Amino acid sequence: MKRTVLAVGLVALVALAGCSASVGGDGSTVDDGVEVEDNSTGATNVTQSVGIEVDDSTAGQELTAVGATYPRDDFTVDAAQHDQIEIGVDTDGDGELDEEFDETHISGVNNNAFSFDVTLDTGYTLESGDVVVVEYPAVDNPSEPGEYVVEVRLNDQQTADATVTIG
User: Fold this and answer.
1) Nearest alpha carbon to residue 37 among 141, 113, 150
2) Using CA atoms, how far apart are residues 43 and 5, in angstroms rounded to an integer?
3) What's the 3-state SS for 45-88?
4) Coil, strand or helix: which one is 167?
5) Which of 53, 57, 94, 120 is a good FRET partner for 157, with 20 to 30 A between their CA atoms?
6) Beta-carbon neighbour count of residue 7 at 10 Å?
């Protein structure tokens, strides 16, 4: 199931170009790089997959960090254990994870009330066009429906905005 969620998220994340597509039977939407397991208002401990396409600012570097910042007054990000987080890379744009990293690659997980950052020891060198996806299992959705912008970070040097639709 987790691999399927990541793969579905990757399909829409390849370009972070604003394309939308319905996913599965749960009514969630992939939109601008965020896939939400449960997009209902007020849902708690929701698994969200966020992604970012590697550009020239991080190409050639080792994959060492990925994170996201949610709108401060709308979402709550709780702590997650290393074994609850999955990270993958689609290297060829086909929507399938070609590289996967688990708790053995995670050296740290930090969160506050509205963001998370995962640090890694992967040995994987990022290439331009790779799509890095992190699946984080402890996000509480806002109580109001709408579209919200999430900032996704890669190696603390590259950022991209993604949109998540709630409700």
Assistant:
1) 141
2) 18
3) CEEEEEEEECCCCCCCCECCEEEEECCCCCCEECCCCHHHCEEE
4) coil
5) 94
6) 18
Tokens, residue 124: 């994987």
Question: What pTM did the predictor assign?
Answer: 0.80
Mean pLDDT of the 138-148 span: 97
How many angstroms separate the CA atoms of 119 and 109, rounded? 6
Q: Residue 136 belongs to what H/E stretch?
A: strand 131-140
Structure tokens at 138: 């402890």
CB half-sphere exposure, 116, CA atoms < 13 A = 23
Using CA atoms, how far residue 95 sits from 51, 63, 98, 164, in Å, is 12, 19, 9, 19
Cα 102 → chain centroid: 14
Q: Across the strands, what pairs with 3?
A: none
Largest CA-CA distance found in the chain, in angstroms, rounded? 41
pLDDT tens digits, 28-60: 222 247 899 999 999 999 999 999 999 999 999
Helix (H) or strand (E) holding 117: strand 115-120
Low-confidence winner among 2-6, 68-72, 83-87, 157-161 (lowest mean pLDDT): 2-6
